[in-house]
Amino acid sequence: MSNFIGSIMRFGENMNRHLSAFYTTRNPDFVASNFLRDMLYTNSMAWIKESPNYALHFNYNYGKYNPVKLNRLLSKYREGKLNMSDKTERLFY
Q: To 10 degrees, what angle do helices 28-49 and 52-64 make?
């Protein structure tokens, strides 16, 4: 009987884990809002904790290497098509 109850408990725990993931990591709205919140926080903290020169470089790089660019780089990496004469793609390798 206790084996049966244990299997029901494990099923409930797994279901709870999956439901939690659906509301967070597997939810595109959560991922996008979390990314934007983290982006605003890191850019603000760069200006607060670092020198203005560093913060400017940080903000420039954040704009230059945005998620779209990083996704393209990752695709090129997976396909083995990185251009080694391009500095960014060489560093990504």
A: 160
pTM as predicted? 0.57
Residue 29: burial class (beta carbons within 10 Å; 0-12, 13-18, 19+): exposed
Instruction: Please state, in angstroms and rounded to a whole number, the distance separating the CA atoms of residues 79 and 48.
Output: 40
pLDDT tens, residue order, the chain (93 aa) = 578 888 889 998 999 998 888 888 777 788 888 888 999 999 999 999 999 999 999 999 888 888 888 889 999 999 999 999 999 888 888
Domain ranges of the chain: 28-92
Cβ count within 10 A of residue 74: 11
